[in-house]
Amino acid sequence: MKDPLIIFDTTLRDGEQSPGASMTREEKLRIARLLERMRVDVIEAGFAAASNGDFESVRSIAEAVRESTVCSLARANENDIRRSGEAISPAARGRIHTFIATSPIHMEKKLRMTPDQVVEQAVKAIGWARQYTDDVEFSAEDAGRSDIDFLVRIFEAVIQAGARTINVPDTVGYNVPEQYAGTIRTLIERVPNADKVIWSVHCHNDLGLAVANSLAAVCAGARQVECTINGLGERAGNASLEEIVMAVRTRADVFPVETRIDATQIVPASKLVSQITGYPVQPNKAIVGANAFAHESGIHQDGVLKHRETYEIMRAEDVGWGANKLVLGKHSGRNAFRARLQDLDIEIASEEHLNHAFSRFKELADKKHEIFDEDLHALMRDETITPETEHYRLVSSRFHSETGETPRAELTLVVGGAERHAQAEGSGPVDAAFKAIETVANSGGQLLLYSVNAITTGTDAQGEVTVRLTKNGRVMDGQGADTDIIVASAKAYLNALNKLQSSAPRLNPQI
Ligand SMILES: [Zn+2]
Description:
By secondary structure, the chain is an alpha/beta fold. Helices cover 39% and strands 21% of the residues. α2 links the parallel β3 (42-46) and β4. The longest helix has 18 residues, at 485-502. The two termini are 33 Å apart. Bound molecules: zinc ion.
C-alpha cells in the first residue's frame, strides 16, 4: 500500500503573482473547476485579505468547488486570518494557510521581531485560524535559509497549537535536492509529534530545481507538494504540477506514494492557464510542451513505429493530448454553442449575453471554419469585459504596410464614451498601431513585453497577443485575439491600458 501524496495547487495564488498574470474572478472559477475535475486535493484559491476582489474570488471558489479542499493564504495576523476564515466559510472543506518568516535575515530586517516573538505570533495565528477550521496549515517563510534548531522549535509549538500541515518552503529557490531532502528528514526526526502532521514542500525554481527538490523531499517523507500548472509563479516559478504527478506515476518503482490526479485533465488545464494568463508554454516543456511527445528525428520515428516504448516513457493520450477535438463550425447553432460553453465551465450571465456572444461566434466562424475550444476561451474572455472596466475600446482600424513605404495605422477608438480618431506611423504596422493609441491615451506606460502566438494550428488560426505595460512600478498584461494579428495587437494594448486604469494595487505575499 502506497501513501497518498497530497497535490496542493497554488496556480490561483502563487501563480497569479507572476508579473502581469492577474486573473478575474470568473477566470479563477473556470480554472478552479478544472482543477477540481482533475482531482487536485487542495486548491489555494488566493489571498483573501489582499483586496475585496481577492476575497470575492476565494469565496466564489469556496461556494463552487465541492470535491477539493479550498484554501486561503493569510499572514500571521488576526485580520488576515479573519478574512480568510470568512472567505472559505462556504467550502465543503476549507483550509487556512498562515505563514511567518523564520530566517534570520527576514526576522531581523523585515519583521523586526525577535525569534521568541515570532514563535509567539505563530502560535497565536494557529489559535485564531482554528476558530474557523480544523484544517490549518503553517508555513515557515524562507525555511530554506532558516536555522534548523529554530525550525524545530517553531514547528513543535505550532503543532502543539493545532496546525495539521507543516510546510517548509524554499521561498527563494536556493536549495539543492540532497540538502533539501536532508532538511526534511531531520525535521521529521527531530520535531516532537512529527507523525501527527502532514509534511509539505513548496519549492521555487530559481535554479531550475523546484521539481527535483520537491521529489527529493517526497523520498525523505514529505506527503504534500505545493505546485502550479505550467510551473507558473513568482520569478522563475514553482514546481510544476504536471511534472510532479507524471514523475511519481511513471517512476512508481522509485516513489513510495501515489496521487489521485486524473492526468487526462493535464493538457486542457495547461492550455487554459496559458491562455488566461497570456504566458505561453515553451515547446520543449516537459509533459505539456508542443514537442513533448513529437518524435521528429528520423531515427526516433523509426524506433517509435516499431515499438513505442523504445523512446516513449509515457503516452500522450494519458496526459490529455489529442483531447482537443474540433468542436464547432459555421453551421453550428445556438444550442450547440451554449452546450459547449457549459462543458468548458464558461459562465453565461444572461440570454442577452449569450445572444451577443453567439453573434460574435458567427462572425468568427465566417473568417475561420473550424472553431476549437481555445477559440471559444479567447472569444469569451472579450465577452467578460464590462463597460466599467473598458475605458478604451477599438471600433475600427486601417493599416497600411508596403515595401518601400512607411507603415501607417489609422484607428477609431471609443475613449470614456466618446469616439476619437488616431493615426501614426511606425517601424511596422504594430508599432504604428501602438503609437496611434498613445496619441490619444498619453498613458505614460512603458512597454515591457510583446508576444504573439497562434491559438490553434493552421494559417487561419487566431493570433493571440500579450502586451505587458508598466507604470509607477505596477505591471499589467493585456490580451487580444483576432485572425488579424495587428488587430489582436491593438486590442491587447488597449486591454492592458484598461487594466492599468481600473485595477487597484495589491499585496503579494512571498512564500
Ligand atoms: Zn511561493
